[in-house]
């Protein structure tokens, strides 16, 4: 809530204006057929934990694979490098399974603003780690930064509360493609720059899963 001294003139909280508004990242997005089950789970979990100051729309649900960078302006050379990296990665379709829920520390409370913590589904081990690694190798080859640290997750909402990690009834979706995304930070808008299919002839499951 926006505060001005001890008075409240009904002034809304000013929109967030990041210094680097253009973000580029690789991600996996749900298919429309998956929206219903994930939206229902979002409702159940947020109600159970009394979380949900800011709920994400199901169309924005995704696990990020690699963060290419935040920029004052996304340049064509970065888009080219991202597209070149993605086209060199080849994997079959695979299943992403989320078996836990919890909060990340997120943004701490500062200057009178409350904390802003992501409430997320956490993925189990599986081929998503392999795709993250393969993308990182190609990104480095094409002059982009890549991260070795990876905690695959899907953000459901943001809230001040911190919910400790805990198990849930697993929920899955099949990744049929991965996407290079331009995120307009502060505007909650995604532009899909490029997309690469993951062939559906074989669905790679988690190690140890029964065939």
What does this structure look like?
The chain is α+β, with helices and mostly antiparallel strands and 211 residues long. The protein has a single domain, classed as Cyclic Phosphodiesterase, Chain: A, CATH 3.90.1140.10. It is 20% helix and 32% strand. The protein is built from three helices and nine strands; from the N terminus they run βαββαββαββββ. The strands form two sheets. The chain has a five-stranded antiparallel sheet with strand order 2-6-5-4-7, with helices on one face. A hairpin with a 4-residue loop joins strand 8 (177-184) and strand 9 (189-197). Helix 2 (76-87) packs across helix 3. The model is unreliable at 1-14 (pLDDT under 50).
The helix count comes to: 3
Overall average pLDDT: 87
CATH level-4 homologous superfamily: Cyclic phosphodiesterase
Q: How are the strands ordered across the major sheet? A: 2-6-5-4-7
Please describe the biggest sheet, giving its number of strands, its sense, and whether it closes into a barrel. 5 strands, antiparallel
Described by the principal axes of the CA atoms, the overall outline is globular
CATH architectural arrangement: Alpha-Beta Complex
End-to-end C-alpha gap? 51 Å
* Order of helical and strand elements: EHEEHEEHEEEE
Q: Percent of residues in beta strands? A: 25-35%
Radius of gyration: 18 Å
pLDDT under 50 segments (min length 5)?
A: 1-14
**Approximate helicity band:** 10-25%
CATH class placement: Alpha Beta
Q: How many domain regions?
A: 1
State the total count of DSSP E strands.
Answer: 9
Content-based structural category: alpha+beta
Instruction: Determine the CATH topology.
Output: Cyclic Phosphodiesterase, Chain: A
């Amino acid at each position: 809530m926006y505060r001005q001294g001890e008075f409240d003139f009904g002034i809304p909280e000013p929109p967030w204006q990041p210094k680097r508004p253009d973000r580029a990242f690789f991600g996996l997005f749900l298919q429309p057929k998956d929206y219903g089950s994930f939206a229902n789970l979002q409702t159940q979990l947020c109600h159970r934990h009394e979380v949900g100051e800011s709920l994400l729309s199901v169309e924005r649900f995704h696990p990020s694979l690699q963060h290419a960078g935040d920029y004052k302006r996304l340049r064509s050379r970065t888009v080219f490098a991202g597209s070149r990296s993605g086209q060199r990665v080849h994997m079959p379709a695979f299943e992403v399974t989320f078996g836990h829920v919890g909060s990340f520390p997120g943004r701490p409370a500062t200057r009178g603003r409350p904390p802003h913590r992501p409430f997320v589904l956490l993925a189990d081990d599986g081929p998503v780690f392999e795709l993250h690694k393969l993308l990182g190798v190609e990104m480095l080859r094409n002059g982009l930064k890549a991260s070795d640290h990876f905690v695959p997750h899907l953000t459901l909402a943001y809230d001040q509360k911190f919910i400790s990690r805990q198990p849930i009834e697993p929920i899955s979706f099949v990744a049929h493609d991965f996407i290079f995304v331009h995120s307009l930070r502060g505007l909650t808008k995604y532009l899909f720059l490029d997309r690469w299919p993951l062939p559906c002839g074989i669905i790679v499951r988690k190690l140890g899963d029964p065939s």
